[in-house]
């Protein structure tokens, strides 16, 4: 589906909307970029978010929102082309490079981003951050997974429970 | 514009991760092979059973399984757990010869794992999509063999088979009324009849058909057909009144491949019906016939 007012008509001036973070910072962004969010898309289609109004986002703080919008702005042109079936290999490689760098972030930022992507229903970003977490788990032993994801070492009781669970599924717990 | 302020007292990564909604964690777990997803049970009590309810399951052969029994026990537990369930949307069963440790006794798997039965059990979990990939396994063992495959499922909509050998009399999907999409790749089709009343899209890539006899395709609802023959005789296509697109290509090793010296012939143009010793093009005739009806 084409994003609203993606440049044709209206003298080429892209429509802007304002988003307000939980800590009251206002972000002005092209409607096409904000519409990557399924949650915002309907409001924007109804003409909301323009002028002095702004759309309040009580669940997203300004640091996270600025990161989310960085993603949306980068991905909006491709999304406007319906997933960019005719994008060049160069464009796609550039988006991939951007994505890889984009999730190369501190874990606490990553988790805030996961929550924001989930609340705002931004499909591409949801997949990207989920894949990042999966990659953090992949190929690791149970202990390494715990340490990578910042869990403290288990107590002896927890350890015993885990052993039992793993053995139930045929896994030797190293 | 923005003036990002840094967060106040930040909760630990573990707390934040544990606070994520269940469907977000399921999304992450769906991206992991099942034997890796199971390890996340070590994270916290909440995670202990989360991996078992993820909507898609991927079972892959992997280095690290100490022996075939452990591997099969794991698969068995998974199947028992999901039997009759409604949470699993897709199952992928992916065994690759190179995934296994060279010391892993593959024969133990083949001796104890009957692939047809395995597929039946996966379908008992009410899955919508089933992918069975047996890369490079076919030449060494019988695991890829699916004799007289007759599947029954009210939920299956998509089936993907990679590296399997179907033989016997039939490849019958009349028991799968919701099946609309099917893909077979690098597989061997040695059956008399391949039938499905519901199938709309069929893709067959690098498939080997029998050299001696033709398989009859009885796929009346087919809309899109992509057929890429590696060897053997091209199938006989029954009436397909809804067919909109068809792409057919024959490898030079196919029994039907054209040997004429016409520069414009790509090898599939003169697809002969040698049973009748008739040199007319049966495939294209069938194809044009369906177009004429449509």
TrEMBL record, chain A:
Pfam family, one: Skp1_POZ
InterPro entries named in the record: SKP1 (IPR016897), SKP1-like (IPR001232), SKP1-like_dim_sf (IPR036296), SKP1/BTB/POZ_sf (IPR011333), Skp1_comp_dimer (IPR016072), Skp1_comp_POZ (IPR016073)
Keyword entries, A-Z: Ubl conjugation pathway
A single BP term in Gene Ontology: protein ubiquitination
Domain SKP1 component POZ: 16-75
Pathway: Protein modification; protein ubiquitination
Record-annotated SKP1 component dimerisation domain positions: 124-163
Family: Belongs to the SKP1 family.
Subunit structure: Part of a SCF (SKP1-cullin-F-box) protein ligase complex.
PANTHER family on file: SKP1
General function of this protein: Involved in ubiquitination and subsequent proteasomal degradation of target proteins. Together with CUL1, RBX1 and a F-box protein, it forms a SCF E3 ubiquitin ligase complex. The functional specificity of this complex depends on the type of F-box protein. In the SCF complex, it serves as an adapter that links the F-box protein to CUL1.
Protein name, UniProt field: SKP1-like protein
Classification lineage: Eukaryota, Viridiplantae, Streptophyta, Embryophyta, Tracheophyta
Automatic annotation (TrEMBL), chain B:
Domain F-box stretches: 14-50
Organism: Eleusine coracana subsp. coracana
Protein name per UniProt: F-box domain-containing protein
Gene transcribed to yield this protein: gb16291
């Amino acid at each position: 589906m084409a994003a609203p007012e993606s440049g044709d008509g209206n003298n080429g001036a892209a429509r802007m909307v304002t988003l307000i973070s939980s800590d009251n910072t206002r972000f002005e962004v092209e409607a096409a970029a904000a519409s990557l969010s399924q949650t915002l898309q309907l409001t924007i289609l109804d003409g909301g978010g323009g002028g002095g109004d702004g759309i309040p986002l009580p669940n997203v703080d300004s640091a996270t929102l600025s990161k989310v919008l960085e993603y949306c702005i980068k991905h909006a042109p491709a999304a406007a082309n319906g997933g960019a079936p005719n994008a060049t290999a160069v464009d796609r490689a550039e988006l991939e490079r951007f994505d890889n760098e984009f999730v190369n972030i501190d874990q606490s930022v990553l988790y805030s981003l996961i929550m924001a992507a989930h609340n705002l229903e931004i499909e591409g970003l949801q997949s990207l951050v989920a894949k990042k977490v999966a990659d953090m788990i992949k190929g690791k032993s149970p202990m390494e997974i715990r340490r990578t994801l910042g869990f403290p070492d288990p107590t002896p009781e927890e350890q015993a429970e885990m052993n039992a669970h793993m053995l139930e599924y045929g896994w030797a717990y190293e | 514009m923005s003036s990002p302020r840094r967060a106040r007292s930040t909760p630990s990564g573990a707390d934040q991760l544990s606070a994520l909604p269940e469907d977000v964690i399921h999304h992450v777990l769906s991206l992991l092979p099942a034997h890796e997803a199971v390890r996340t049970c070590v994270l916290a009590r909440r995670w202990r059973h989360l991996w078992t309810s993820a909507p898609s399951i991927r079972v892959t052969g992997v280095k690290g399984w100490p022996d075939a029994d452990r591997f099969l026990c794991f698969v068995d537990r998974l199947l028992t757990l999901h039997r009759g369930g409604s949470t699993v949307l897709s199952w992928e069963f992916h065994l690759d010869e190179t995934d296994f440790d060279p010391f892993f006794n593959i024969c133990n798997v083949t001796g104890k794992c009957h692939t047809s039965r395995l597929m039946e059990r996966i379908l008992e979990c009410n899955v919508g999509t089933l992918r069975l990939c047996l890369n490079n396994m076919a030449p060494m063992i019988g695991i890829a063999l699916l004799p007289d495959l007759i599947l029954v499922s009210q939920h299956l909509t998509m089936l993907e088979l990679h590296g399997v050998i179907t033989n016997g009399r039939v490849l019958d999907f009349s028991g799968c009324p919701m099946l609309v999409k099917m893909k077979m790749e690098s597989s061997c089709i040695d059956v008399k009849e391949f039938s499905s009343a519901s199938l709309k899209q069929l893709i067959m890539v690098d498939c080997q058909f029998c050299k001696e006899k033709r398989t009859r395709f009885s796929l009346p609802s087919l809309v899109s057909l992509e057929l890429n023959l590696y060897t053997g005789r091209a199938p006989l296509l029954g009436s397909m009144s809804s067919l909109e697109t068809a792409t057919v290509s024959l490898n030079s090793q196919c029994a039907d491949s054209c040997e004429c010296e016409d520069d414009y012939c790509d090898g599939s143009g003169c697809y002969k019906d040698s049973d009748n010793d008739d040199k007319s093009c049966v495939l294209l005739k069938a194809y044009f016939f369906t177009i004429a009806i449509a």
